[in-house]
TrEMBL record:
It is found in: Cell inner membrane. The lineage of its organism: Bacteria, Pseudomonadati, Pseudomonadota, Betaproteobacteria, Burkholderiales. This is Type II secretion system protein H. One of its GO terms (cellular component) is type II protein secretion system complex. GO terms for biological process: protein secretion by the type II secretion system. It holds the Pfam family GspH. Keywords: Cell inner membrane, Cell membrane, Membrane, Methylation, Transmembrane, Transmembrane helix. Residues 54-193 form the General secretion pathway GspH domain. It comes from the Bacteria. The keyword Transmembrane helix applies.
Length: 212
């Protein structure tokens, strides 16, 4: 009896540890299926986060321009600018209605986006912000009231829009892939200078304050 028990214990000790080949294959297959389901939604979630961050940044720039105009009691403008490197403000910048980088200044910052803030030296820059590395992962489309591309909006000392004929009236922020349904956002600028973020995908009939 003791001999049988000893042989049984020896057999248990000699049993190889770890996973069998079948177990490894099944585990890898399950992991691959999980990743196939999770990765696309995770990528879309990251893009939606970038859209929100870009929209928040643009709203901050617009509100800064308006509040600075009221504080100074003079016209101050918000400008959209393109940069050679999306995370570096440089003096090769140009006005662009499809870029998320922005400058708040009194005169046009084209060719002077890297200037230090100043009350006397052109473009009399107040503040600026590059869109950063996420610039290629969001789409920006700034439009005037007639639907043409816009690059600037100017506020006066009362906080109202003064360049009504060519002012930015809305900025649409979306994702990089037209085949994916992102959580797009829109910024609307009224004649009174109010800046509002809304959801352009909600139907106009929806009882939702977020609708555009």
């Amino acid at each position: 009896m003791l001999a049988d028990e000893r042989q049984h214990m020896l057999r248990r000790r000699k049993k190889p540890a770890g996973f069998t080949l079948i177990e490894v294959v099944v585990t890898m297959t399950v992991l691959a299926l999980i990743l196939a389901v999770v990765l696309p939604s995770a990528g879309t979630w990251l893009d939606n986060t970038r859209i929100r961050n870009a929209a928040d940044s643009l709203q901050t720039g617009l509100q800064t321009a308006r509040s600075e105009a009221i504080r100074r009691n003079e016209s101050v403008s918000f400008w959209l600018v393109s940069l050679e490197k999306p995370n570096v403000l440089d003096n090769d910048c140009a006005l662009s209605g499809t870029s998320g980088s922005w400058v708040v200044s009194v005169t046009s910052p084209a060719g002077g986006c890297a200037n230090s803030p100043s009350n006397t030296t052109a473009p009399r820059l107040v503040t600026a912000r590059p869109i950063g590395d996420s610039g290629g992962l969001v789409s920006i489309n700034a439009l005037q009231s007639d639907g043409s591309a816009g690059t600037t909006v100017t506020f006066n000392g009362f906080g109202r829009v003064t360049n009504s004929s060519d002012a930015i009236r809305q900025i649409d922020v979306g994702g990089p892939n037209s085949n994916i349904e992102y959580r797009k956002l829109r910024l609307e600028i009224s004649s009174s200078g109010a800046v509002r973020m809304c959801d352009p995908q909600l139907p106009s009939s929806a009882e939702d304050p977020r609708k555009c």
